[in-house]
Each structure stands twice: as C-alpha cells, then as structure tokens.
Amino acid sequence: MNKAKIVIIGGVAAGASAAARLRRLNEAAEILILERGKYVSYANCGLPYHIGGVIADRDDLIVTRPEKFASWFNIEVRVCSEVISIDRGNRRVLVKGGEGEYFEPYDKLIIATGASAFTPKTEGDDNPNVRHLWTMSDMDNIISALSGAGPNPKVTIVGGGFIGLETAENLRHKGVEVSLIQRSHHVLPVFDEEMARPLADELRAMGVNLIFGRTVEKYENAEGGVVAVLSGGERVFSNIVISSTGVKPNSELAVKSGIECSKGGFIKVDEHMRTSDENIYAAGDVVEIAEPIFNSRTHIPLAGPANKQGRITADNIAGIESVYKGTYGASVVKVGKYAAASVGMTEKRLKADGKKYRKIYIHPSSSASYYPGASRMDIKLIFGDDGTIYGAQIIGEKGVDKRIDAIAQAMYAGFKADALGELELAYAPPFSSAKDPVNYAGFVASNVLTGKSTPVYAENIPDGAVVLDVREPSEVANGKIPNSVNIPLGQLRGRLSEIDKSRLVVASCQVGLRGYLAERILKQNGFNAANLSGGYLTWKAVNSK
Length: 545
Ligand code: FAD
Description:
alpha/beta; 31 strands
C-alpha cells in the first residue's frame, strides 16, 4: 500500500484498533479518525465499574488519547467531529466539527460507528431523569445526578442484560437503592431461565429489588425524580432510571448512502469486512457478521469481535488477505459472587428457531473437590444429533471464564461435543480436576451420543415413569422429587426386584453422576432406564419459581 488516505468514522474499539494496525502495516498512509464524541479509544466496558468506584480513577478508562495517536502512530484524531453523510460518488464525507461543516476526501473509508442504546418508545421517556449508560458522558451525567440526589439515592434499571446487571451491582456497591425491571422471568438473555436462577437469588441477596414479568408502560414526572409505571400497575419511584433494554446499530450514514444493510439496519460485510462499496469497510457493533453454527448471519455487540474486526479490516486495506470467520458470542459477566458465561445458542433460541437439539446438565467442582476452596459450577451444554456444539452456559464462583473459553475454542475449531472429553487442559488441585469440568461435559455428551445414557429432563419426566432416587436417605430428607422411590446406589444391585420392570425407570441423584451409575446397572439388568440430567439440583432449578 502507498500513500492512500484512510478515513475512519468512530474512534473506539473497532475504529481505534483498525487505525493502529493500519499504521503498523503502512508508515506512508494518511490516517484520520473522525469521532463525534469527546473521547477516542476508551473502555466503555469499564463504565459501570467507575460508577461503582471499583475503577477509582476516571482517567484509567481512557486507553489512548489523541496526543498518543499522534506521537506514537502519526494518526490524526479529530474529536467532536461528526460525519453527517457519505458522498460515495466523490469519495468524501461531510463532517460537522467545531468550525462548521466541511468535506473530507478518502481513498478508503472505515465505518466503525458502533451501536447506541435503544429503548422502545415509551410515554414520558423524554424525562431528563430517564438515561442510558453507553458513553463517558452518560457515565459522568449519572454520577453527577446521583451526587445531587440526596443522602439515599434510588435508581431503577430497566433491562437485566450485561449492562443492567453490572450497573445494578456497582450501584449497590455505592449503597444506592436499586430496582431492576425485567420483561421476562429471568435476567441475562444469553442464559436459559433455569440456568439464570442463581443470579436472581444473588441480586436479591445484594439488596436489588427485582421485578420480573413487567415492562414500563410510561414515565411520570415526580419531585426529585421520575416514576416508572409498570404493566402490572405498580409505580416505582427513583431519582433516575437507567434504561438498558438493548442496542441499535449506528448505520444511518450507510443506509442513506445506499450501502447494503440488513433488515435490522446492520451493515452487510463480506468476510474481509468490505461493504457493498469496494472502497468502504465496516467493523464492530454496526455490522452483521457470520453466525458459524447454522451458517446464518447475526450481530453481536461485544468488544472482542469489534477489536478483531478492526484489525482484520486494516489487514485487508493494507493488502494482506485476512478473513473474519464469524462470532459465537462468548461472553462473561460478574454478578456478586458469581461469574455467568455463555457461548453460542440458548435452548430458548433453538426452540424458537425450530431446531432439534440435545442437552446435558452437570454440576462439577471448580477444582479438585478435596482442595480447600473448591466450589460448584453449573454447566449446560447443548448440541446436535451429530455432536455439533450449539451452545453452553456456565455459572459458578470460580473458574467459569476458562471453561467457557475452552468450549468456545472447541466450537471455533469445529470439535464435536464428545471431543471436549479429549481436550488437554492444565491441571493441578488448586485449579481443576484431572478430569476437568469441560472434559467431564464431553464424557457425558459422548455417553448420550452413543446411547450409553438416555437423558430425561426435569421439565418433562415421562408420565408413568418410576423416578428412582439413588441418593442416601439423609440427602433425600433435604428435598426430593414428588413420588420418587428411594433406593441408595449402594443397595441397588440387591434390591432390583423391588422395581417395576414394565415401566421406564428414571434414575435420579444429586447432580447426575450416581444417577448415571444406576442407569448403567439397570440397563444391563434388562430395565428400560434413563438418567435425570443434572439430578435433583437441576430439577430444583427448573421447578422452583
Ligand atoms: P463503539 O465502541 O461504540 O464506538 C463507536 C464510536 O463511533 C463512538 O464513539 C461514537 O461516538 C462514534 N460515532 C458514531 N457515529 C459517528 C459519526 N457519525 N461520526 C463520528 N463518530 C461517530 N463488551 C464486551 O465484550 N464485554 C464487556 O464487558 C462489555 N461491557 C460493556 C459495558 C458498557 C457500559 C457498554 C456501553 C458496552 C460494553 N461492551 C462490552 C460492548 C463493547 O463496548 C462494544 O461492543 C464495543 O465498544 C463496540 O465497538 P465499536 O467500535 O463497534 O463501537
């Protein structure tokens, strides 16, 4: 590449990484970042943590300032400079800056305009106390509104996704009274309901007033704040509302200039991040990308994909062929003592799409169970009849992120669910078990795929089945599945004659392991047997309201 002029619209995750990579590849190019906000290259992911005081110094959120872009990279950054249109015919953009409007020519253009917080139109949402948390200025405004709200500030958060949850936790750190309103019956949309249950318990333990199954019908002015009127008629007063109900792509520029976009308004790009205009690339939250599991298209607003796409865009502009293969959506969020992580599709999504799937639940220990401090994690693995991994969800106090990463990499590599059992994973007692939870998920999936184990799920135990609880009586005394029969595993071989051979026998234990052992004994003695996946723990999560 030569002295081409590359203009980048948007200077945060995708835009900043494209700019820096371009410079590393080409000393001669002229690179200009146009950013409508006051900051470039800042950590929007850190915003909730500064509100909570965990990241004490606001300046720590700013990764690279314009002066550093200039001195380290010889990249010009113009903040407070909004691109208001793209003139593709003349290869130039119209910019509105502090000194009025002007045209800026380009040879190659990168649209890295990201997404914005989106709230469905609600009566009264123009109330100044109804806010979002998306930018540094949003964060500053929230902090200053809270400091002016008197000794006991109250905040209502609408939406229990990543940002809503992180904001709730951080506000509680600050002693703020928090109500969280969620349309569905569980938080974290990338989780299925039964897997998200511990998060609700944890939020309540943190003092969050959780309101499920409600939407905000309207906002009303109130002295010192705003009242959210909910679909059930409840009225929730707070000093401010933080609406975290979703995002929409900032693609108006692309749409208006005739660049091809999806129905949802995301910019369509090829695997090189090139748009329908060969001189214009796009990356980050604003694009639609490949969904590799079912070979469809998706949009996933996460920082990792945005950064990688920025880098890949730069490679291709610099003449290095580089391909973006798609996003599985690996994500993790901290909620109190828990980490909740997921990748791929939820069961809810697969059902809605009419896909056939299998699933398993396991509850292994984060590290060797004999090592002090080991704690339980809940894992749900979803896969197809051919073993293709469709998705996974993990919640626990320790080691959750590395397990989801291992599964995500297996998905990326095209490994099947049973191959998780073969992954080589580092082990010493403080960190894992010789059979890591991910290996264990692979073993269980393999047993299911090869018919050694037939899983039955808590939500649909077949009518007429005998539920055989093989736990010890002391465990059963702490809770059991109604109408289950208890024969402890150690006595099972001697008491087979007590079990009705004409009926399906669903073996059940605490987490699914002893149930599987019982299932194998039963099957090899001529019973029609199955194992309750995830045992009593999963049954309780599914059946508790
Ligand atoms: P952005 O980072 O949003 O940057 C786009 C920039 O373009 C903006 O600065 C905008 O002002 C500018 N722009 C838009 N239009 C114009 C225009 N016309 N002219 C000039 N400039 C324009 N992701 C994770 O993976 N993990 C997390 O923990 C996480 N936490 C988050 C917490 C919060 C509070 C927020 C808001 C986001 C979080 N994300 C997280 C998401 C992540 O930050 C985004 O996916 C990522 O920043 C997207 O990068 P981007 O470059 O596409 O867009």
